[in-house]
Prior knowledge:
This protein is mostly helical. The chain has 2 domains: about 1-90 and about 120-180, no CATH class; about 180-345. The protein has helices at about 5-25, 30-50, 55-70, 75-80, 85-90, 120-140, 150-160, 170-180, 185-195, 205-215, 220-240, 250-255, 260-270, 280-285, 295-315, 330-335, 340-345; strands spanning about 100-105, 105-110, 345, 370. The chain has a two-stranded antiparallel sheet with strand order 1-2. The chain has a two-stranded antiparallel ribbon with strand order 3-4. β1 (about 100-105) and β2 (about 105-110) form a beta hairpin. α1 (about 5-25) packs parallel to α7 (about 150-160). The radius of gyration is 26 Å and the shape is elongated. It starts with 6 loop residues before the first helix and ends with a strand.
Amino acid sequence: MLSFNNCLDVARHLPYLFHTVTFLVCTGSLSMRASTHGLVINIIHSLCTCTKPSFSEETQRVLRLSLDEFSLQKFYLLFGISKVKSAAVTAFRSSCRHPNDRWLGNERVSQAPPSDRERLALPSLEVITDALLEIMEACMRDIPDCDWLQTWTSLSKSFAFCYNPALQPRALIVYGCISKSVTDQDVKQLLRILPLLRPESPIHRALFWVAVSVLQLDEVTLYAAGLALLEQNLHTLNSQSLFDKQSLMDVMMATREPLEWHFKQLDHAVGLSFKSNFHFALVGHLLKGFRHPTPTTVSRTSRVLTMLLGIIAKPLRRDKFEVTPDSVAYLTALVAVSEEVRSRCHVKHTLSRWPGEANPNEISDTTNISSQA
């Protein structure tokens, strides 16, 4: 832990300290967890008493409020020390030998019993990261040309896109919280980690919504990367037999539930509600791929829609071309560009010529599909 005469070191190394905290929070023995919490308290103390750089009264107010916030029982729980009365006392507890301790020379290595361990849920890490980010941004306003956030973002990004089962999930959460911009290269990097993740990793399902969110941004430069991520994600989940017994909608809406409030706002902004009609909302974002200037993206859009058609038919063991309330959205999108769909489904109203042979912008919404006799 830090002392009160280290103001300059804290100011110089704040991004590295916050980066370290997000990786250590709620890990190790009880003493280790209390020390991590104490490190954050000491960092804020040091910033409050710092003279160079000096902070405005408003920044000082934010720091004092943050100090109070991190001392609340809520943050004791997030740091895995909810059962201790004093984090400081626990961090510096007696060095006497305990039955659960191992010794390496003169160094004591604590082994907490199973009942003493607390796990950190990834949404809880988001709360801690947001609180640390608020501190950093408040201080940065008083320092010209401050690059603290850029440094922290670079550190988290390097771990987010590097395979490490222990740290990568945390790094992805932190990077998502503190990143102020995204490029198509960042989205493409996610494609590299998908095959490396453990099949049971919760990141697989979360990345579906990351890809959909990129499509919702309606940025031409990002759309292709988002669509590629969605295709790879669906392929990975399908290869894990995730959709053999569960429907795509049930799996993904359950994954989205913890962040429903945020997604609901995004749905409202673009005018498509996944909660009201999951399949038509998804197809609504995919249809934009037919108007993309890159031919590979146009063809990928057809592949993704065809893949989705097969996925939604799997749990009920139905033919994927059977018209159902779930499949009609995908069939409607594909009927204008897929000869296979046209041959398997009756078409009541046809166009003068198929848009597959013409410009994708000419796709009409007047095509209706009825089930085969």
